[in-house]
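Protein modeling request. Please complete all fields; requests missing the sequence field cannot be processed.
Requester role: graduate student
Desired output: 3D structure, token encoding
Chains: 1
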Amino acid sequence: MTICGAALFTACSSDNVDNPVNPPTDLSDQIDEFEDVPGNAGDPAVVAALQSIENVEDLKPFMNVELGQAYYFNYRQLIDHNNPSLGTFKQQVVLTFVDKDAHTILHTQGYSLMGGSGERNHNRLDSISAPNFLWALSKDYGADKFDLNCVQVEYRYHGFSLPEGDKDSFKYLSAEQQSKDLHAIVTDLKKALITGSGKWLSTGVSKNGMTSAQYAYYDEQYGWDDIDVYVPFVAPIPPQEWDIRVGEYMLTQSSKERLGNLEKAYRTLVDDKAVADATIAAYAKVYKMENNEELTEDSAFIYTLIRVMNNLFAVQSYGDFATWTQFIPNKNSKPEDYAAFFMLNENDDCIFRKTNLVRGPLAKRQDPFEIQIGIDQGNLALDYTWYLDGKLLSESDKHFFKNEMKENRNSKAIELEVKLLKNLETTDNKLIFVYGEDDPWTGAAIPDPVNPNVKKYIVPHGTHTDDFKQYGWYEGGAEVAKKILDDVIAILNQ
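Delivered output (494 residues):
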């Protein structure tokens, strides 16, 4: 979910703006500058209200590149909400405040608050991006001043929000625990600061959007009534540990008008030895860069095929797919042209930017995302049908791919996601799910709703993003974007 497209694409969805609204302008590529962000006095009334919250610590008003005046604090959170005796840990929060009566966006995270380990300035408070939906809902799209409050909360076990005494076991990593984290923070902010008549909107993108959908489920189960409308963007709800519908959608539904020529190119990889050899050589170079070891000869072909299909998933999810497909090789193309196309650009800044840098506390820990897949989240599974008749594949290779796909189809059910999907049929919560037509993750979208409280939109040719400006690039995209905003604004104005 976090891979970006190739250098020839227009942009990475996680990049920060080049022209900050406010100082500072000295952002650098250092990853350990958390303490170097200068603080300021902030609004005394806001500071006093936050200081009145018992669980708020380390409060620091500061200027953010996109958000303007912001307030950082750690929230003293229970390690286990079902067993308070285990103690607490610090959870990172960033708040921007307009007015006690303004509507509030709760930007739910699925990862670290300030981005993944490969993103520029991801440890700097002043480089946290404003949610795209915050721009879209403000009166002046692209304004310097927002009209809504915004709360951004780091996901437990990510970034610096590490449960004390339990940094390695991930025993208390779950959507339920994170939802209770969110409930605690929202409850305190409603009592101390955001005390007026404004509505609350929970939103996020991709796994962040999954967090919103899961929060909606637990909000109803526990009767919290925290949020007025949930708007998850491109949030898959995989009811299995490995959801092969994502891979199937990628090969049959996403970018349908271009799939024929793509399939021809990908079949060439398993039919033409020169093309295969050139692509294996390109992947071997990348593999050594990533793993600091050589790719073994006996596994090179099958690992390359898997990598190539993963790259297709990344391009369809995040890239300027229409531009990329202009370079689909044909029968007159050189093997090296095929290899470059399959492997994207191995020098691509988006993919390899700071790949060796990991935020300090996470340096010796497994990726929490990978852990949570088997707990309550699920993940994508690829479809290799374009390869199965390849002349260069041995029977063992073909068996491997067929068995991989069979096992994924029969992978274990994710209990939370099954319950969540069932709950959408009857929930009283208002949810608006938004998906991109060309995004493979749409294969794991929610079914068409039968409940009037739940809506589902698919943006024509949309990718794995919540960028309303990008929606406007596509025929019919602007119309869908307007319907989404109209639905949300109608709920906020009730």
